[in-house]
Design goal:
Layout (H helix, E strand, L loop, with lengths): L2 H18 L2 H17 L15 E2 L15 H17 E4 L2 E4 L5 E6 L5 E8 L6 E8 L3 E9 L7 E4 L2 E2 L6 E9 L3 E6 L4 E5 L6 E6 L2 E6 L9 E4 L6 E2 L2 E2 L10 E8 L8 E9 L13 E2 L2 E2 L2 E2 L9 H4 L41 E6 L12 H5 L17 H13 L4 E9 L9 E2 L2 H6 L10 E2 L1 E3 L6 E2 L4 H17 L6 E2 L2 E6 L2 H8 L2 H17 L6 E5 L18 E3 L16 H19 L5 E4 L1 E2 L14 E2 L2 H16 L10 E5 L19 H10 L15
Parallel strand pairs: 3-7, 23-24, 23-36, 24-26, 24-27, 27-30, 30-31, 31-32, 33-36
Antiparallel strand pairs: 1-20, 2-3, 4-5, 5-6, 6-11, 7-10, 8-9, 8-11, 12-13, 12-16, 13-14, 13-21, 14-19, 14-20, 15-18, 15-22, 17-18, 18-19, 24-25, 24-28, 29-30, 34-35
Length: about 700
């Protein structure tokens, strides 16, 4: 279907839904949203297809109008997305109507002026359960209508634990007096089902709830056999979740097919992986093919039609690509000279909360053999809104400062390295460009704080040779170049220093007592320099590489972690967002217990280190989207609020990570998520989250 037609159909359905109140139109809207519309959008969200075929390959729309560098479908696709809030929840004369099930919060106003907040917590349509919290501003009698899709023939619905009957293809009408915090739980029927071809041809499509499934060449390779879809007498298909899938596939299932080498005997079952239609073919290349309709039988040797772009564009000389002007993977974008000056920051006040972010200074040519961005470019969704930037450019740093301050992050903790081979010599730092070339020369640098994370464990750098080396070379360098700067993070009169590998420091200094003595001498030197001491925070994440159990014994003040929970081995595989959040909460508690020190909380948004390590298993990759990350931040804030308000462990939160694109944990604005993660931080920690506008530089 053409993208413009999809959007027009959705606009018609939304109007028919508004006029008739028939949930069949909401069913149609849901199917169109989760399949045709999102399937027409590139993974980065910055371009669309003209046509969205049911077999072949996804092809980006070429420019139709050279003056504006757009086509009609590229312009109309976003209109379909922006239509969603208008039909997701509506109002009837006697109460709210919920048409779309997705995590989020909506507020309705009753006829008498009462506000009703409806909060949905769900991973639908991956899972079948939708938990809804209904919170009127006061006890009120009204009707809450919930759409029961026509395909959900076995639905369970409860209100405060009590079952409520409901019928498919209708609205469940919950007519009662509602109190703040009432709980509604809806379980929809997501069993697989075979959909016969409307034409009567001997072929099926497979659906799961509103999701159309498709074969994809990345998941199911051609074979020299013919198969038939296994369907039971009720038209059901037995779907099993795939134990592993590509990171860019939303959901995937093992689907049963039957091989019949002869008519009467030797029949056997095989399972082929099928994924959701949106993920199918989302490599947007001639090699990534897919198919929805399954002829009976289906010969797997030629199940993927090739070169379908030629049917769509018979006059084109070559296959269309995502235009470079829109940020296709082939476009290396940098700041244009006209847009290097970032607007002045408008800091979001956070009250007593002190929010910082770990920071990885790797994004300057030569840092990793000159191939830093080369390894990230195959993952175009990670491209920063600054483009493939040069980290030592003060103009780049000004944008980073603005983005951080505008969203409540007041300091960075960049990794600090000592050049390899520099032991027992005056200090030569390595990868210091973000500090010395960027922050210290930037227009807004004096408005933004920083603290060092001494990365003393890197094989590409070095630590110390002895206590003398620490006290006569390293510490004086820190004092002169960092601690005495007015924007260094000094709390209660003490500079704050993070140490990444305390156990290596112990080894280099000869033991626990020697390390405690050396840290004491560092504090004494800071006092002689006019400070009130030195706050030292040890990094600990309970992994085989970091066996230290008592940071307190060597003189550390606090404990924190660069990343949770992958380092700690606490994450189940595969992990759902709720499990990821629980794992991090577990890590917060165990960290303090094991280290015998108060802990500084870290919140992590993901881990996917395949750019650095292509052999890293996809099944071990995980990510919280911005909405789930906001839930994690809310939990972290609640944990901070349990602690003494004046204590550092009750005030400080560390965000993992500002820009670790190679390891796949970053909150810096990118093509895929925009300002989503930063907005989540601002939403939770800003004490007066005034409306604000996010701005990014023009790229060339």
């Amino acid at each position: 279907m053409e993208t413009c037609v999809t959007v027009t159909w959705m606009k018609l359905c939304s109007q028919l839904l508004r006029l008739t109140g028939d949930p069949a139109w909401a069913d149609e809207l849901e199917v169109s949203l989760y399949n045709a519309l999102l399937g027409a959008m590139t993974p980065g969200g910055d371009w669309w297809s003209y046509w969205c075929p049911l077999a072949g390959q996804r092809v980006p729309s070429p420019h139709q109008h050279s003056d504006v560098q757009l086509s009609c479908c590229v312009a109309n696709g976003p209109r379909g997305l922006l239509l969603t809030p208008r039909w997701a929840q509506m109002m009837d004369k006697d109460g709210p109507v919920v048409n779309l099930y997705a995590p989020g919060t909506a507020t309705a106003k009753l006829a008498d002026g009462t506000d009703v907040k409806i909060i949905q917590e769900t991973e639908y349509p991956i899972t079948d359960q939708i938990a809804i919290t209904v919170t009127p501003s006061r006890k009120s009698h009204f009707v809450l209508r919930l759409r029961i899709p026509a395909w959900s023939t076995s639905t369970k619905l409860t209100v405060n634990g009590k079952p409520v009957p409901c019928q498919p293809g209708t609205y469940a009408k919950l007519d009662r007096e509602w109190s703040p915090g009432d709980k509604v739980v809806l379980n929809l029927d997501l069993r697989g089902r075979a959909v016969p071809a409307p034409s009567g041809a001997p072929e099926f499509a497979v659906k799961r709830g509103p999701i159309v499934l498709a074969l994809d060449s990345r998941l199911s390779a051609p074979q020299n056999i013919a198969v038939r879809l296994q369907v039971d007498d009720d038209g059901r298909v037995d779907l099993k979740h795939c134990t592993s899938k590509p990171d860019d596939v939303w959901m995937a299932f093992e689907v049963p097919f039957e091989v019949r080498p002869s008519h009467f005997f030797n029949h056997r079952q095989i399972r082929l992986a099928m994924c959701d239609f949106v993920s199918a073919g989302n490599g947007w290349s001639e090699k990534n093919l897919y198919r929805v309709w399954l002829p009976q039988p289906l010969f797997l040797g030629d199940m993927y039609p090739a070169n379908t772009w030629k049917l769509m564009y018979p006059d084109a000389q070559k296959r269309p690509v995502i235009p470079a002007a829109s940020g296709g993977a082939e476009a290396v974008r940098t700041l244009s000279s006209e847009s290097k000056s970032a607007p002045a920051p408008e800091p979001a006040e956070t009250g007593r909360y002190l929010v910082g972010a770990w920071m990885c200074p790797l994004w300057k040519p030569g840092c990793r053999n000159g191939k830093e961005w080369d390894q990230i470019m195959p993952f175009p969704e990670r491209q920063p809104l600054l483009g493939w930037y040069h980290e030592g450019d003060p103009g780049v740093t000004d944008w980073e400062i603005k983005w951080a301050l505008d969203h409540g992050i007041s300091f960075f903790v960049p990794c600090w390295y000592r050049e390899k081979g520099n032991l027992d010599k005056p200090v030569k730092p390595w990868l210091e460009h973000w500090l010395h070339e960027g922050l210290f020369k930037s227009q807004y640098g004096d408005r933004f704080q920083f603290a060092l994370l001494w990365e003393n464990g890197s094989k590409q750098a070095c630590g110390i040779a002895s206590e003398k080396d620490l006290l006569e070379n390293v510490l004086p360098y820190w004092l002169e170049n960092y601690f005495h700067r007015k924007n260094y993070l000094v709390l209660d009169g003490k500079p704050v220093l993070f140490i990444y590998r305390p156990e290596i420091l112990i080894k280099e200094l000869g033991g626990v007592e020697q390390t405690r003595a050396a840290i004491g001498k560092m504090r004494d030197r800071c006092i002689r320099e006019g400070f009130k001491g030195l706050t030292v925070i040890g990094e600990y994440h309970e992994s085989p590489a970091n066996p230290l159990k008592d940071l307190k014994g060597i003189g550390m003040d606090f404990v924190s972690s660069y990343h949770w929970p992958t380092f700690a081995g606490k994450l189940p595989r595969p992990a759902m967002p709720a499990e990821i959040i629980r794992a991090q909460q577990m890590c917060w508690k165990e960290q303090e217990k094991n280290a015998s020190l108060p802990g500084i909380l870290t919140v992590s948004m993901g881990w996917d280190s395949r750019p650095w390590n292509p052999k890293f298993p996809k099944s071990s990759c995980w990510r919280l989207d911005p909405q789930d990350f906001q839930k994690l931040c809310m939990d972290a804030k609640a944990e901070l609020d349990k602690r003494p308000a004046s204590s550092l462990e009750g005030r400080m939160l560390l965000v993992d990570n500002w820009n670790e694109f190679g390891e796949g944990h970053y909150v810096m604005p990118t093509r895929q998520f925009g300002f989503g993660y930063l907005d989540a931080i601002r939403n939770v920690f800003s004490i007066s989250p005034k409306p604000h506008s996010d701005t990014a530089p023009e790229l060339r």
